[in-house]
Amino acid sequence: MSEKTENRVALITGAARGIGATIALALAAEGTDIAVVDYGEKSAAEETLAKIAERGVRVAYYRCDVSDFAAAKATADAVFKDFGKIDILVNNAGVTADKLLVRMEEADWDRVININLKGCFNMIKHVTPYMMRKRYGRIVSISSVVGLMGNAGQANYSASKAGIIGLTKTVAKEFAPRGVTANAVAPGFIKTAMTDALSEEQKQAMYKLIPLGKLGETEDIAEAVLFLVSDRARYITGEVLRVDGGMCM
């Protein structure tokens, strides 16, 4: 079987920038058509959309709040109508609202759970009918090492990412008979604009937590996703792949 994902269609949430954009570009380089789903204005995604188009694949932008059940359905239906199929779903959209639990407001909890976890449920719920018709599908949801180990100041985020793992394992069991696999990727500390802004002292403290002694790159997450949606991973489902430099062993 081919190891590539050419002639397939991927719906990727939170794909306008950051890890989501890198995943989209990696899949596009393999010949995958890309549906970029993001909550921001299309203008904020223009650079990513242009880079994807340079790969010679079809690309379209869909503005969607993934925490909105009806909006998620409308988006999934629109992607199917425009592309004719949905082979790959990557649940990447996520937010943080970090506070110690004693200071965390209900709104902080609800927003993170609704976008990070309910958003995954919404997209899976509305995309899987199209996958089941073809008896083929690849679902990858971006969790986090804090969903495995917890983290002070991130009760909401940790709970949402742990929930994604439980959701992934259940989806894997329910949809396996229909040829659909579901896996999760759990990133550790990844180099982003936010980590670039940290002081050298903060960075050194972070490095001490990572056996490999350095931050990961967004490309490291994209490569893991690329593997899990490829034919090389056709017999892998319900797995949580840590990409964390050994941080959560």
UniProtKB/TrEMBL annotation:
Binding site for NADP(+): 14-17, 92, 157-161, 190
Record's protein name: 3-oxoacyl-[acyl-carrier-protein] reductase
The protein's Enzyme Commission number: 1.1.1.100
Active site: 157
Residue ranges of domain Ketoreductase in the record: 8-188
UniProt family annotation: Belongs to the short-chain dehydrogenases/reductases (SDR) family.
MF terms (GO), sorted A to Z: 3-oxoacyl-[acyl-carrier-protein] reductase (NADPH) activity; NAD binding
Highest taxon listed in the record's lineage: Bacteria
Catalytic activity: a (3R)-hydroxyacyl-[ACP] + NADP(+) = a 3-oxoacyl-[ACP] + NADPH + H(+)
SUPFAM superfamilies, per the entry: NAD(P)-binding Rossmann-fold domains
Taxon lineage: Bacteria, Bacillati, Bacillota, Clostridia, Christensenellales
NCBIfam families: 3oxo_ACP_reduc, PRK07231.1, PRK12826.1-2
UniProt keyword Lipid metabolism, yes or no: yes
Gene: fabG
SMART domains xref list: PKS_KR
Subunit structure: Homotetramer.
